[in-house]
């Protein structure tokens, strides 16, 4: 339900009282900026943009103000779409019904760092959290390749990244220890949920409650190094990617690319042209073992770099990033599908046949690798037609071309029925049978 001009004006007046003049905007430029995310990565979504435009944007500066802002919106019957850094690539942060965009970027305080945990406000960038953990002799279990994104956005819209080989996804139950959430209630209040009770708010796009503050687990710090290797062929690299991922202590990240994708990455002497590239964040004690694996597979180690900046740089070339660099490097329009399973290594040739011109970017994981299969874009139907072929090859997949919550959908609906009875939180993101676009597979979906 879209809000009327009168509702928006009344809300704006109240929010200026809570957040001050600079904490609210109804200017078109600010509203447009707050209404886009990384959805343009998908040509299928890009063809449908703009999918919504905020009527008003608010910038709460702390958890209490987040609660007060949501309560004001609810009292005025205005929908609320939370926004971290806006890097989610499925359109999850787009205000499909207009209303209020709740920009968290000013609520970025690290509240507490203790033994085994860290508490931060929703808008805190993941890199700041990792740095605060490091200063206490600890590290976070995982962060996304979009390391500048917010903790609230990563928990609500993301799933994994650097650290996932050992710790799985942020939905695993070990990552989030506690949350302070805000429901669609007319009274401002922060609801503290811990352990199991916190998990239903993870990866559900803020539809059942908005995260104002999060407490995540920390582990003892390790000495990490950035490890670059190259190979004559991609098959050389894929033949050992999982073995490198299984080194003990477990690497934080192991990514590999075809020469064509590696050529599209930012120029770096450690990523030579026309060779397959493997990049890893390794525990320093495993450099020798990794080198032996690389050389036995016909590759060579290009460089080993020390320090946090070197390892974050490798993170920022993982997961969706190589595909984004590929898209930027050419006039050709590329789409991608998130894929998983041992078939990524065992049936690589067949996988590359699923779409004309297909190219795989691959990441080691604990059980089996995951990846992004990119190919020149033709039409939505051509993309969806490949899904059955992926299934026939035993490849798990997740469609990045739709914006609906696809994790624990029924649990999310049931929770939202009590926490958001009027459907004001990020409306349009919980699927109803008739709104699921063709070709979206829910079963066995593997998020990346
Ligand atoms: C090139 C590229 C690479 C990426 N790599 C990864 C990766 O390695 N791993 C990964 O998991 N993801 C990845 N992503 C997706 C995305 O960048 C991350 O998930 C990121 O952590 C999202 O954080 P954000 O602050 O940008 O969230 P946003 O995009 O702002 O929001 C994401 C979702 O969460 C909701 N939300 C935001 N803040 C809150 C809050 N406080 N409470 C409730 N709901 C909220 C939004 O409404 C939206 O639905 C990638 C995207 C791109 C474009």
Give a description of the structure.
- It is built from 16 helices and 18 strands.
- The chain is α+β, with helices and mostly antiparallel strands and 448 residues long.
- It has three domains: 5-103, Uridine Diphospho-n-acetylenolpyruvylglucosamine Reductase, domain 2; 110-221 and 408-435, Uridine Diphospho-n-acetylenolpyruvylglucosamine Reductase, domain 3 (2-Layer Sandwich), CATH 3.30.465; 224-398, Vanillyl-alcohol Oxidase, Chain A, domain 3.
- The strands form three sheets. An eight-stranded antiparallel β-sheet has the order 14-11-13-12-16-17-15-18, sandwiched between helices. Strands 5, 6, 7, 8, 9 and 10 form a six-stranded antiparallel β-sheet that branches. It has a four-stranded mixed β-sheet with strand order 1-2-4-3, with helices on one face.
- The chain binds flavin-adenine dinucleotide (FAD).
- The site of flavin-adenine dinucleotide (FAD) has 39 residues, from strand 3, helix 6, strand 10 and helix 12.
Q: What is the element layout, followed by pairings?
A:
Layout lengths: L4 H15 L4 E2 L2 H6 L9 H4 L9 E3 L4 H13 L4 E4 L16 E4 L6 E5 L2 E5 L4 H10 L2 E3 L10 H7 L6 H4 L8 E7 L8 E4 L15 E11 L3 E8 L2 H12 L7 E5 L1 H4 L13 E8 L3 H10 L3 E7 L1 H8 L5 H8 L5 E7 L2 H4 L1 H6 L5 E5 L6 E7 L3 H13 L3 E3 L10 H11 L29
Helix pairs in contact: 1-4, 8-10
Please provide a brief summary of the model.
This protein is an alpha+beta fold. Helices cover 30% and strands 22% of the residues.
Q: What is the average per-residue confidence, as pLDDT, rounded to a whole number? A: 95
Reported for the largest beta sheet, the result is: 8 strands, antiparallel
Large-scale geometry: globular
Give the C-alpha Rg: 22 Å
Q: Quickly give the structural class.
A: alpha+beta
